[in-house]
Amino acid sequence: QESCGCCLMERQMNRMEMYFNKSVYHMHELLMKSKTALMNMRSRVAFSVSLNSEENMRCMGPFRSNKTIDYKHAFLNLGGSYNTSTGIFTVPRSGVYVIALTVYSDAGSPGNTLAACAILHVNGKVVAGPSEKNKQDQEDSVTVVLALHLKAGDKVMVTLPIGCCICDSYHHYNTFSGFLLYPTE
Q: Which residue ranges does the record assign to the C1q domain (predicted)?
């Protein structure tokens, strides 16, 4: 008998079970989407800094030994991994990063030696050393852009080598930038 109470209850239970299973499936899908969105937000890493933001031109160097450049003006520090006090970018997550460095200098007057140069380091090892040294220019700049595979905890920094000088103002001629292109772990 289809109309007996037990049969009706069994049909109702089957419908409720199907509804419950669909609900659990949709909740699981939403959970996975939420986890992915959260992971994407946590993986956002980008910084862009300049030497200073003062109105008057300020120069740094030349020094008798290499000196870490601590870029003081932060345009962006998404993830908070660049330290404006130390000048060091600490990699928060392993991945491929794009790192860009531009150095600018002013020799002061025509005929003086221009020495716009810097050294990019990862964990103390030299990665790049953009340099422009000559007596033909009073002002000049040099830029390097690299894609690097970096590991969580790596330290990326820029030093001013012996004999080099960089100058900056609110025009932001000297910049150091980086961002996570994609994570590898």
A: 40-185
pTM of the model: 0.76
CB within 8 Å of 175: residues ≥ 6 apart = 48, 49, 50, 51, 71, 100, 101, 102
Distance CA 71, CA 73 (A): 6
* Contacts with 55 (C-beta within 8 Å, 6 or more apart), sequence order: 169, 170
Instruction: Report, at the CATH architecture level, how domain 44-183 is classified.
Output: Sandwich (2.60)
Locus of tokens 């007596």: 135
CA count, 13 A, side-chain hemisphere, 115: 15
User: One-letter amino acid identity for 62?
Assistant: P
Q: pLDDT tens digit string along 18-30?
A: 999 999 999 999 9
Which residue type occupies 114? L
Q: Which residue has the tokens 């033909």?
A: 136
- Beta strand residue intervals within the chain, DSSP E: 46-50, 58-60, 67-68, 73-78, 82-83, 88-90, 95-106, 114-117, 119-122, 125-128, 131-134, 139-150, 155-160, 166-168, 175-183
